[in-house]
């Protein structure tokens, strides 16, 4: 079978690998679609994503969906040919957490995640024609939800988790700063959670058009000199740019909330944070998700249209071109999809 494998910085290849066989408690997936994420780009460009660095080749991809090709011994409730997506996280160890974060499995200190070099050996992702997956990580797609949509359940779950960090969003004004794929999905998630008004801000007009299609009432083009709104109840910072922190904190209302969704740099950077204190802003982080992938699938079943997010589609053999398009900030891409089936 073919797989998209990163061997080092700037070195991604289409490798031939043995087709895997499912063991007890596993299923074999015939993969159909995969969405390119920022971590995939980071491994390709730099050989690392955050603190996770490559020490040997890695199959990319954690936003994936396909169909069950074979069921291993002991697996019940799943059938060959069934369309599914994957919860890409598997806890290492007994899964025990301190009482203060009980149930927040995304904060478990040791998690194997599809397409991650955090452990050695690495955890291969799903950008391949076939992949064995523990049955516990399989999520069947609802009727009417195709595998291309299903591959976007994972990033939608990230957005839903971020929105869920603010328990009372209904009727409130929301700003989403940074409208890449996650930011635009946060727009949709805020709508699902009852936000009254959603304002989207970005430096790229193409991203703002997608945010509008995903439900933003108003957009602010920062590259054209437009400014962030003032006195916003809840701000979702999805750009991950340290330079955005000062303006975002200023945009939040006194006593408001800022949810940090975008990954911030892991190194020291200058940032204007004074308003955090003087405006008594609650600034909270949001990391991956717990089981919001089930909520995401329910939203897709109930008619949430994520197709405006998809700007490009490439076959598996053109994976490097797809990564380059996804990585180009001037190219106008949002979610770039790989067709993984032959």
TrEMBL record:
Residues 8-338 form the Enoyl reductase (ER) domain. Keywords: Metal-binding, Oxidoreductase, Zinc. Belongs to the zinc-containing alcohol dehydrogenase family. Pfam families: ADH_N (PF08240), ADH_zinc_N (PF00107). This is L-idonate 5-dehydrogenase. Signal peptide: none annotated. It comes from Streptomyces doebereineriae. Its cofactor is Zn(2+). It comes from the Bacteria. InterPro entries: ADH-like_C (IPR013149), ADH-like_N (IPR013154), ADH_Zn_CS (IPR002328), ER (IPR020843), GroES-like_sf (IPR011032), NAD(P)-bd_dom_sf (IPR036291). The lineage of its organism: Bacteria, Bacillati, Actinomycetota, Actinomycetes, Kitasatosporales.
